[in-house]
């Protein structure tokens, strides 16, 4: 299972044709304590780069962009009651939504972990 990253610090982890989307550990550290998450609707369709969700911290509100085109098939309801999961476990419990990816080739333009580490250094 490969994780890819966008310039805007979203990650997508592909399991078959389902992409698990969230924000990177680096991003949550920059935002500080996350207090609210506006989740997308199940069934919503996005093109790569569309605004899909919003994460609000004590410092700022940040748009979360779809790292690939597709349809939202699941959202992380736990974030409604516990948005801090993004701070404590951004890669696992703090995922934001799952998207059925319509063109996995779009992921080829995203960064792998090494390139993302360079990007955030």
UniProtKB/TrEMBL annotation:
Residues 18-100 form the Lipoyl-binding domain. The modification N6-lipoyllysine is found at residue 59. Its cofactor is (R)-lipoate. PROSITE patterns: BIOTINYL_LIPOYL, LIPOYL. Pfam families: GCV_H (PF01597). Binds 1 lipoyl cofactor covalently. It comes from the Bacteria. Keywords: Lipoyl. The keyword Ubl conjugation does not apply. One of its GO terms (cellular component) is cytosol. InterPro entries: 2-oxoA_DH_lipoyl-BS, Biotin_lipoyl, GCV_H, GCV_H/Fam206, GCV_H_sub, Single_hybrid_motif. GO terms for biological process: glycine decarboxylation via glycine cleavage system; protein lipoylation. The glycine cleavage system is composed of four proteins: P, T, L and H. PANTHER family: GLYCINE CLEAVAGE SYSTEM H PROTEIN (PTHR11715), GLYCINE CLEAVAGE SYSTEM H PROTEIN-RELATED (PTHR11715:SF3). Belongs to the GcvH family. The glycine cleavage system catalyzes the degradation of glycine. The H protein shuttles the methylamine group of glycine from the P protein to the T protein. This is Glycine cleavage system H protein. It comes from Pelagibacterium lentulum.
